Amino acid sequence: MRILLDYRPALRERTGVGEFVHELAKALCDTADPGEWVTLFSSSWKDRPAATLAAEMPSARIADVRVPVRGLVWAWNRIEWPPVEWLAGEHDVVHSQSPMLIPATSAARVVTIHDLDFLRHPDQMAAEIRRDYPRLARSHAARADAIVVSSQYAAAEVTRELGVTRSRVHVCPPGRPEWSAAVAARQSARRGNTILFMGTLNLRKNVGTLLEAYARLRSQVADAPRLVLAGHTTSASARWEVRAKEGPLAGHVEITGYVDTARRIELFANARMLVLPSYEEGFGLPVLEAMACGVPVVVSSRGSLPEVAGGAAHPIDPDDAEGLAAQMRALLNDAQADSASQRGLLQASQYSWTACAAAARQAYASAMEVHARRG
């Protein structure tokens, strides 16, 4: 099987989608059968794949096309031209890391849909997503030979909202990070001293309620750990940044901006708990990372978070600031934290990148069958 992966989300700062495609590519390369190859497709005028990529995935073929990415995206999304074969050669399967199809003359086509927030809140999306996804996603999903999602929750959402048959939707959950064991060892040696949130500070992450819950916690526990908000700031987060510097929160909240892998490891190693009170998540990778590191988690009852956390957490309504504060206060108790940590490690052990790659291969094989039937 000749697989082309759209590697562009991993070119610069690797947030959730970038991390997913990078680790999926690595797992596919590590488990490839003889005669199978994986091509990592990149297109940018100025951003190049990391110099270490070839050494990290020596069996991968890297198709690095120097074209203005905005122009290519516009042409691909709007007029579905040029075919990717013109840029990267013939393949059996082309896997887009967005809901938008990559044009191809002969390959089966797969799209990834991590969540549908672009349909519900298009005004909160970046320009390209706001412009194209709400109008085009249903058409592209209908024509995709397979759709990859990362949770059962996302599969149900895509099936219902986009009107596609469940047989074309394939669940490929991400895996726990390879660095988690080293962090878990540090966690067992000493307890963390921060409350960690990780993710882009946009409206769906519900940071406002988290700040309210943290303020309540501080009123109840004077020496509560400081709160670290780790992730990109946005226009929506400006009010939270102001609030974090005022009143009872001043001096107790740190906003880091984007964090790379090395910084992420450090943050988890220093975390007493992770709190993710999102209104919507297609998966929630920081929750899996935290559990794999032995860090207890507090999650909301919305989206995929109850599915991902399993028995490691007691999901709380995202609008219940008092309930979130109570869960955080409970995890300041050593015995309860130890129990939550063990439950999280057990839950995280169910996720692996090898399993993700196997599920992706099944999706690719299915896509080729659908593509052949469609002619």
Class by alpha and beta content: alpha/beta
Extended strand count: 12
Mean pLDDT: 94
Count of all domains: 2
Outline: globular
Strand order of the largest sheet: 3-2-1-4-5-6-7
- Any idea of the CATH topology of the largest domain? Rossmann fold
Number of H- or I-type helical stretches: 16
What is the string of helix and strand elements? EHEHEHHEEHHEHEHEHEHEHEHEHHHH
Cα-based radius of gyration, to the nearest Å = 21 Å
CATH superfamily of the largest domain: Glycogen Phosphorylase B
Question: How helical, in percent, are the residues?
Answer: 40-55%
**Gap from first CA to last CA:** 19 Å
The top-level CATH class of the largest domain is: Alpha Beta
Question: Which stretches are poorly predicted, pLDDT < 50 over at least 5 residues?
Answer: none
CATH architecture of the largest domain: 3-Layer(aba) Sandwich
Largest sheet: 7 strands, parallel
Strand % is: 5-15%
Task: Please explain how this structure is put together.
The chain has 375 residues and is an alpha/beta fold. It folds into two domains: 2-175 and 352-374, Glycogen Phosphorylase B (Rossmann fold, 3-Layer(aba) Sandwich); 180-348, Glycogen Phosphorylase B (Rossmann fold), CATH 3.40.50.2000. 44% of the residues lie in helices and 15% in strands. The chain is built from 16 helices and twelve strands. It has helices spanning 16-30, 53-56, 69-78, 85-88, 117-120, 127-143, 152-162, 180-189, 207-220, 238-244, 261-269, 285-292, 305-309, 321-330, 334-348, 353-374; strands spanning 2-6, 37-43, 61-65, 93-95, 108-112, 146-149, 169-171, 194-198, 226-230, 253-257, 271-276, 297-299. The strands form two sheets. The chain has a seven-stranded parallel beta sheet, with helices on both faces. Strands 10-9-8-11-12 form a five-stranded parallel beta sheet, with helices on both faces. β6 (146-149), α7 (152-162) and β7 (169-171) form a beta-alpha-beta unit. The longest helix is centred in the C-terminal third of the chain and has 22 residues, at 353-374.
